[in-house]
Amino acid sequence: MRRRRAAGSGKGLARPLRISVIIPSWNEEKYIGRTLRSLLDQSVPKDDYEIIVVDGRSADKTVRVARRYADKVLSEDKGSIGHARNVGARASRGEILAFIDADSVAPRNWLSVIRRSFLRDRRLAGISGYIYPTEGGRRMRAIYSVSNAMLSASSKAGFTLFVGFNCAYRRKQFFAAGGFNPRLKCTEDIDLGLRMRSHGRCRIVPELKMASSTRRVQQTGIPKLAAQYALSYWCLFTGTEFPIEYGKILDKSDGSGKKGARAAGRPSERAGAVRARWGAVKREIRALAMRYGPRTRAYVRDRIGRLRRMGGRRLSAVRARFGNLFKRLKNG
Question: Is 316 strand, coil or helix?
């Protein structure tokens, strides 16, 4: 597949790029080629967008593969996906910043849907869309369907939940909101989506679809991944910092990016490994409770107090209305 169209007469080469596609990567040599090929096969002319890969010092051939297809390949060593996305955004030239992961596959109309959405609504600041698994069977499809239902419900409720590997923002509003929070280990996409609300409209576009690998879900396990995200959501909405390194305790990886090997040999050894992992999880939970317990209780008390005060005011208004009604009936 050709990397670019033929130059021809050179007409139009000096115009600014319309969309910048930014891809963070780390040890993704098996997947990133498929991702980049899907981006080169878009219905939008290649001169209208650029592809930027931001690599986190991969130990495999990710950079070599990326250089075959991408317009820019950058490096970062902070180890945060939010930081990597910000690095790519600062190096971009597009009016629209689109984000995708290195193990995702973009449909052929992905960029055209993004461009059409922003052209139709000048006040639109950011969009996200639905996600689908590239493998995993019925179970994974059901899980992703629930996620899509949550995305749709959040958009209708007025607080759009963004998906980090299927989203796009206007450049001006993205930087006005401060970009992704590089300190967050998780839910950095949700955090940015909440901040973007004060800079323009944000919504879910059903036509904006993305297929993504389920390998992380399968490696980590659904219960542990759900617990990790529940904890990160709680920390996000209560204003506390996520205390556990991404995947360090709840993931099955051994820290090298590869799936950890099972405890070899006898069942007793495997049981001991499970008890040790669960003990580490409990220690982290205890530490979290000691560190954030008082602040969390104060937060809950404050919210309950606000609801009570709001309910008391409304109850007083209702009583006053009924009192006036009874007086009129009695006098009339």
Answer: helix
Burial of 219 (0-12, 13-18, 19+ CB in 10 A): middle
- What is the C-alpha separation between 312 and 310, in angstroms, rounded? 5
Strands across the sheet containing 124-133? 72-75, 49-55, 19-25, 96-99, 167-170, 124-133, 201-212, 104-105
> CA–CA separation, 290 vs 116, rounded Å?
50
Question: What is the b/e burial string over 26-51, where b = at least 16 CB atoms within 10 angstroms of the residue's CB?
Answer: bbbbebbbbbbebbeebebebebbbb
Q: Domains of the chain, with CATH numbers?
A: 19-213 (3.90.550.10), 222-302 (no CATH)
- Whole-number Å distance between alpha carbons of 298 and 56: 39
- CA-derived radius of gyration, the chain: 24
Query: In terms of DSSP H, where are the helices of the chain?
Result: 32-40, 62-69, 81-90, 110-120, 137-157, 171-176, 188-196, 215-220, 222-238, 267-331
pLDDT average per 10 residues of sequence, the chain (332 residues): 41 59 95 97 95 94 96 88 95 96 96 95 95 88 89 83 95 96 85 91 95 84 75 69 44 39 50 64 63 64 70 69 67 66
Q: Six-digit token pair at 170?
A: 């206007």
Amino acid at site 109: N
Between CA 32 and CA 98, with CA 152 as vertex, the angle to 5 degrees is 35
For 261, residues 6+ apart whose C-beta sits below 8 A from its C-beta are 254
* CA 96 from centre of chain: 17
